[in-house]
Write a structure and sequence with these properties.
This protein has a single domain, classed as 3-Layer(aba) Sandwich (Rossmann fold), CATH 3.40.50. It contains five helices and six strands, in the order βααβαβαβαββ. It has helices spanning about 15, 30-45, 60-75, 125-140, 150-160, and strands spanning about 1-10, 55, 80, 145-150, 180-185, 195-200. A hairpin with a 6-residue loop joins strand 5 (about 180-185) and strand 6. The model has no long low-confidence stretch (mean pLDDT about 95).
Length: about 210
Amino acid sequence: MREIYIVTHPEATHITENVVGGWYDSSLTAQGTRDAERIAQRLVELLPERPTVHLATSDLRRARQTAAPIARALGVEAIIDEDLRERSYGEAEGTTPGSTVFLAPSTDAQRMDHHPGTPGTETRREWATRVYRALDRVQQAETDHSVIVTHGGTLTYLLTAWIQVPIDHAGYAMFSTTPGGITRLREDDFSHDRHIVNLNDTSHLNRAPH
């Protein structure tokens, strides 16, 4: 049985400063740092037998800061993967939301190739293509348990990749998340069905840290 835990980084400075994130290299806030420890504690509970775990993280600072306590708690080294980044918003990154052009996608089959107008912004296809690659690498790891540390937007394409939605048909997908959530995936050995066991569980964030 294969299980994958997807962690979306907790509160980061681009959220509290109200600027566009994307590849803008913000850091965890003090609250986000505390929540990262809570996430690590919860993963220890979910993996009580301490099996060999494959840990992959986005290279952006807020994700690496989230992965650090997880790596310590599980006794593993985090593998850095740029393909797990959030969507690039190009020249909009670090600016006030709404201060640059962002055109809504069409409602037809061309949604994946729509460009929102701000230079440097990825299309949904460009974004999804690299996220699908990242999940492929995680699944190639010789372990039954993996942890992925990523960003809220990127979670959507990790899930469509998991249930094998072709990229051409992923243009309408959107899974809502909150900072610090844990999503649990499972593939069973008998039928090889791919389950989304829990989506965006945040119950651990209400606990007092150990």
